[in-house]
């Protein structure tokens, strides 16, 4: 196969869109990615799979005269969302959808890889197809499992996320913090179930949960400097079985976001205090689980990002947009704490938000993304560029 063209890329993206899989279960996606990669020119490629992280793939493109290894990461997992786009190529996996656009991310990575499979780069290029971005911290796992060893270790790392608010194909970026750090929140409230008619003999977990949820809303409004930013979203609650039985247990799941690690720790602490208060005032047990995993704030490296922005800004075919920090999380933040690099947005121009059941990225973004990224990588490896 020669370099993948736009029609082929769109076909690939639609196939990936039809087979979304949750974190660490991306077996069909893995097999399809391997098939597409195996059909590329293998002359410069070395492909690696991992027993310890079976859905991950790394592809090293051997450079002609390498001075460094430049990493490029794409995530490959999907979300537990039931698709409602009505597209002819919508998800064939019930209850699972590429509602965060990782199908676009993978396709762009394949497009860039296919270009360099035909045009040998000067430096080494390392493509990392990473499982488990939405949960389970695949980036951190990969690092801790020692996947980035020897020639598989990038000197610098790049990765993108699609952005429905930007025009299709636009590249968005900023110096400093691009994305928030997050902490996953799990709260179990253990009360005492009973008959609906005799609340005095029970410890109602639903009433305790309702009060907890309301009190949590005061953390951001009353404990955080209004000039700073933080978010707490409690996205899931489960309690009870039937209307006339008082629930003895409630479970709440959510996520905390902050642009700095200090902010996340402050919100973590206040949440623990609210849980302690609910425990005391309702006579229930409240168990709070906080797990940051690898979702550290995404901090762009100053030098590399300055260079990246300069290229995107100065290239007439690229629509560059300087963006604000976003409260989305990304486990690429962990990898950027280990390897210098840059994360950026790729515009996909859609009215639906990320994580919505109707997300329909504009596919024109794919080829424009491939062109912008291959152009940047060529520039980064060129003699013209300041070393
Ligand atoms: C880009 C994006 O949407 N990322 C996810 C990352 C999830 C982090 C973690 N599992 C959490 O829920 O806090 C996001 O929700 O921002």
UniProtKB/TrEMBL annotation:
Keywords: Amino-acid biosynthesis, Diaminopimelate biosynthesis, Hydrolase, Lysine biosynthesis, Manganese, Metal-binding
Enzyme class: hydrolase
Molecular-function annotations in GO: metal ion binding; N-acetyldiaminopimelate deacetylase activity
Pathway recorded for this protein: Amino-acid biosynthesis; L-lysine biosynthesis via DAP pathway; LL-2,6-diaminopimelate from (S)-tetrahydrodipicolinate (acetylase route): step 3/3
Membrane spanning residue stretches: none
Residues binding Mn(2+), per UniProt: 100, 102, 134, 161, 355
Cofactor: Mn(2+)
Domain Peptidase M20 dimerisation: 181-262
Biological processes annotated in GO: diaminopimelate biosynthetic process; lysine biosynthetic process via diaminopimelate
InterPro entries: AcetylDAP_deacetylase, Amidohydrolase, Bact_exopeptidase_dim_dom, Peptidase_M20, Peptidase_M20_dimer
Top-level taxon in the UniProt lineage: Bacteria
Cited Gene3D superfamilies: 3.30.70.360, Zn peptidases
Function: Catalyzes the conversion of N-acetyl-diaminopimelate to diaminopimelate and acetate.
Homology family: Belongs to the peptidase M20A family. N-acetyldiaminopimelate deacetylase subfamily.
Protein name per the record: N-acetyldiaminopimelate deacetylase
Source organism of the structure: Limosilactobacillus coleohominis 101-4-CHN
């Amino acid at each position: 196969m020669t370099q993948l063209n736009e029609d082929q890329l769109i076909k690939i993206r639609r196939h990936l869109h039809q087979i979304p899989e949750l974190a660490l279960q991306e077996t069909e996606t893995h097999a399809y990615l391997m098939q597409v990669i195996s059909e590329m020119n293998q002359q410069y490629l070395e492909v690696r799979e991992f027993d310890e992280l079976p859905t991950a793939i790394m592809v090293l493109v051997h450079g002609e005269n390498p001075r460094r290894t430049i990493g490029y990461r794409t995530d490959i997992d999907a979300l537990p969302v039931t698709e409602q786009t009505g597209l002819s190529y919508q998800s064939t996996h019930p209850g699972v959808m590429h509602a965060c656009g990782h199908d676009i991310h993978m396709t762009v990575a394949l497009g860039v890889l296919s270009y360099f499979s035909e045009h040998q780069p000067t430096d080494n290029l390392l493509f990392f197809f990473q499982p488990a971005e939405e949960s389970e911290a695949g980036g951190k796992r990969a690092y801790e499992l020692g996947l980035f060893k020897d020639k598989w270790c990038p000197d610098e790392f790049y990765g993108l996320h699609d952005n429905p608010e930007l025009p299709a194909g636009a590249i968005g970026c900023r110096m400093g913090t691009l994305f928030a750090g997050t902490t996953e929140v799990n709260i179990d409230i253990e009360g005492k179930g009973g008959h609906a008619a005799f609340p005095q003999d029970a410890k109602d977990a639903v009433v305790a949960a309702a009060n907890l949820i309301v009190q949590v809303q005061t953390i951001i409004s009353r404990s955080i400097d209004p000039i700073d930013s933080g978010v707490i979203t409690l996205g899931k609650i489960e309690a009870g079985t039937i209307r006339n039985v008082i629930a003895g247990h409630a479970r709440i799941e959510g996520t905390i976001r902050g642009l700095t690690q200090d902010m996340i720790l402050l919100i973590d602490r206040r949440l623990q205090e609210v849980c302690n208060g609910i425990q005391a005032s309702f006579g229930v047990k409240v168990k709070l689980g906080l797990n940051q995993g690898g979702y550290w704030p995404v901090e762009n490296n100053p030098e590399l990002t300055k260079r990246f922005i300069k290229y995107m800004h100065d290239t007439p075919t690229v629509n560059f947009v300087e963006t604000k920090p976003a409260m989305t999380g990304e486990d690429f933040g962990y990898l950027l704490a280990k390897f210098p690099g840059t994360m950026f947005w790729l515009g996909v121009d859609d009215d639906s938000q990320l994580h919505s059941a109707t997300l329909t990225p504009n596919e024109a973004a794919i080829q424009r993304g491939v062109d912008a990224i291959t152009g940047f990588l060529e520039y980064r490896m060129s003699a013209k560029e300041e070393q």
